[in-house]
Structure formats: C-alpha cells, structure tokens
Amino acid sequence: MKRTILILAVASLSGCASTAPTKIGANTYYSSKTNAAGAFGDVSAVAGNLMGDGNQFCESMGKEFELVTQTLTQPVPAVRLGGASITFKCVAHASSPVMRPDNGVTTIN
C-alpha cells in the first residue's frame, strides 16, 4: 500500500512543467506553469506565482511588469493537471495594472 502511494506521488510530481519567460515580441514575454498539486491545487495561486516571477524578470532589466493576458486551466481528475499561463510586457513605466479589455487579442481586417 505504501509503495502504491509513493508511486502515485512521484507520478503526479513528474508531470509538472513550467516555462521560463520566453520572448514572443517586442518587450513581450510568455510564461506558463502546471500546478504541482494536481486536482487539489489552486490555479489562481499558480498564476500569482507566474506574475511574481515575471515581475522579478522585468525588474532585473530595470523595467516594470505589465500583464497583457492571463489564462487559467482548471484540473480535470484523471485527464489533465491544472495550470496557468500569462503574457506580459516589460516596460519603462506600466500604464495600467488591469488586463486590457480585449485580453491582448487584436484583429486586423
């Protein structure tokens, strides 16, 4: 029984993944993280951690963090782990701490 619990714990932790801030445009970065707690974790906390990491990343360049988009993926037991992803900019002066109304998506006609 103890061995089964250990195997399940190791398997659930091995599915964790995260991406460091990856440049996707001019001063724009993408980062994501899978929730290590599986079906029992809070994906909002994962998003908060990503924002904290993004803030530190921008500060290391002498700039300010500005959130562009945030996506939360709720866990589905036995199907997928939950997680979060954000897109952010590192700017000289952050104009607004609130996400844009269009969630950072624009359409060119």
Write the layout of secondary structure elements.
Elements lengths: L1 H13 L3 E8 L2 E7 L8 H17 L4 E10 L9 E9 L18
Antiparallel strand pairs: 1-2, 2-4, 3-4
Describe the structure.
The chain is of the alpha+beta class and 109 residues long. The chain has one domain. 28% of the residues lie in helices and 31% in strands. It has two helices and four strands, in the order H-E-E-H-E-E. Strands 1-2-4-3 form a four-stranded antiparallel beta sheet, covered by helices on one side. Strand 1 and strand 2 form a beta hairpin. It is elongated. About 11% of the residues have low confidence.
- Compute the number of strand runs: 4
Q: Looking across the biggest beta sheet, what order are the strands in?
A: 1-2-4-3
Total tally of structural domains: 1
Classify the beta-strand content into a percent band: 25-35%
Which descriptors would you attach to this protein?
elongated; 4 strands; alpha+beta; 4-stranded antiparallel β-sheet; 109 residues; 31% strand
Brief digest:
The chain has 109 residues and is α+β, with helices and mostly antiparallel strands. It is built from two helices and four strands.
